[in-house]
Amino acid sequence: MYRYDGFDAKFVAERAAQFRRQVTRRLAGELTEDQFRPLRLMNGLYLQLHAYMLRVNVPYGTLSSKQMRTFAHVARTYDKGFGHFTTRQNIQYNWIKLEQAPDIIKELANAEITSIQSSGNCVRNITSDQYAGCAKDELSDPRIYCELLRQYSFLHPEFSYLPRKFKIAVTGSPNDRAAVAVHDIGLRMHRNEQDEIGFEVLVGGGLGRTPYIGQTIRNWLAPEDLLSYVEAILRVYNMQGRRDNIHKARIKIIVNQMGIDKYRELVDKEWEFTKNGALKVPDDEIERIRAYFAPPAYERLQDLTAELAVARKADRAFDRWLRGNVIEHKVPGYAIVNVSLKAPGRVPGDITADKMDAVADIADKYSFGEIRVSHRQNLVLVDVKQSDLQQLWRELFALELATPNLGLLSDIICCPGLDYCALANARAIPIAQDISHAFSDLDELQRIGHFTINISGCMNACGHHHVGHIGILGVDKRGEEYFQLTLGGSSDQQASLGDRLGPGLPQAEVPGAIRKIVDTFLKRREHEERFIDTYRRVGIEPFKEAVYGSESQAA
Amino acid sequence: MSQMIIANRLIDGLVVFLVSGGQWDTAIAQGALIEEDSEAQRLLEVAKQDQARCLVIDPILIQVRVENGQVRPTEIREVIRAFGPTIRTDLEDTGPAVVISREADRRADGAGHLRRSTKE
Description:
The structure holds two protein chains of two kinds.
Chain A: H1 6-27, H2 33-41, E1 45-47, E2 52-56, E3 62-64, H3 65-78, E4 82-85, E5 91-96, H4 101-110, E6 127-128, H5 143-153, E7 168-171, E8 185-191, E9 197-203, E10 215-221, H6 226-240, H7 251-258, H8 260-274, H9 283-292, H10 305-314, H11 316-325, E11 326-328, E12 334-339, E13 350-352, H12 353-366, E14 370-373, E15 379-385, H13 389-398, E16 413-414, H14 429-438, H15 442-448, E17 453-456, E18 470-477, E19 480-487, E20 499-500, E21 505-506, H16 510-524, H17 531-538, H18 541-548
Parallel strand pairs in A: 6-7, 7-8, 16-17, 17-18
Antiparallel strand pairs in A: 1-2, 2-5, 3-14, 4-5, 4-13, 8-9, 9-10, 11-12, 12-15, 14-15, 18-19, 19-20, 19-21
Helix pairs in contact in A: 1-2, 1-4, 3-12, 5-9, 6-8, 7-8, 10-11, 16-17, 16-18
Chain B: E1 2-9, E2 15-18, E3 24-25, H1 37-52, E4 56-67, E5 70-73, H2 76-83, H3 103-109
Antiparallel strand pairs in B: 1-2, 1-4, 2-3, 4-5
């Protein structure tokens, strides 16, 4: 994985020292909150309902066991013993004290971790496929390009005060696990007839108050042109984006107002001046970065299909976990193991310090000391020998980290909601807990099949509710928490935004409504259809009727 | 309906309530119950001076009521701020889990809209 070079290490250490001085001045009364707020936000420090919240970057969701232990140490020493993994593959701490924040940032810097640009109107953490470098369906490792973009956009003076925040995601696989279509820029790798790698560039996707699926601005972009083209998109946005209205400031608004053709024209015009200039990425630079992501020392192994079949037959729970949470690896004899942070009744994405340490130990023992974070708020061990799977499963099971629900209905995305967040209108976590309790029967979950539920506590959509098969949005209705359901959203290569089912429901009625939707799906399902396929075939009406009754049209 | 002044303490962000002696306390039970609007405005000015002195951030007036001898904000958001998250009951030190009062109770009290924060 990427290691800091001399510049990175020096800069991040200097920034940590600078932030300490800023905090000292604030506590001494030399800075007002208005003066200090932008300074703390530049370092990912928010003020939430109960305390300060620190958001820490996990670039493209890849971290070492050492870094995970640092996360555990921070959780234990400075927080209440846990952390929360987010849909940007980052970690958030909910109980941070301002006076201790400089110490935390310094400790993170020592482990080559930073919270810089995890907030503010700049390019945020660049996200990617959690299986990058190991997935069987991958064309090439997307993290090389993520890292290239990270180095380019980190503290870029021209783009440190954009009209609004800016999110980029990259997938190296045709099966999009990085939700690239709902990003400000989404990069989708393709391979051409000459066997070269290039990117389809999507622009103007996003969720929040005004959701859009990104549109293709360019079908093919050679890797050497990646920086200059992304810069052209950013520069046009920086000049054209609205700064008068925070709700209309994202790139998606201008792309959709002026139209993709006009936006493309402006970008191409800008790009003309720069495409053959200093930002041309030389092959050796790509190779230099690629070296950081060199595959670990895999052993020459065979797939253990027959041996695993015997073990599976002997142990149903192991079999269920293997089928559910373990993914094929591109190297024979290895497997990708998903570590579920979605045990029934638990808070999606939360993990205690002790479990972080345990996962770090397990990663050292079984997976070359590397851990991934998925945007669906789970962890992944990407390089596990198939011969270790059963022992690994036992260890994860003992830690309550082996719930075999990957991609199933209880594998819920959920934002912190009104339990922590100053922006939220309603609590999101209790809804996730209610649903995961109501659907904890593993046989039933498997029968239902692939199913995504995404929950946000407000329209800012940190829980990606627009792109859940079922989306749940918490709203404030005359001082009460209500929950609006949307159906048919998806964030994969066939991305779609959910359709609103009907009027909001009180919390107590949500699990029952989900049950009715699932029952309707099972009745209407053909063959082994996924919910999303059935929904696209039959439309919203049967589900509307199931939830609201036949008079639903009046609602 | 009674009022109270709530803020976040600068040094650690914890939720605090203005006490009658002019100090701040993390327990809502210690907060000064304010009955008159004129008194509420006067104390809010006092609280804003504490903001200027870098003791607290964003002091505001909230509505509270006394139920079985316990002071409780009327809005869900402030209930959660006062008593802590309603989840993570597996951890002891995140504050007690809060039972949000039933819909009908709050309707009867005429609880207003949630106050929204500025986006950070």
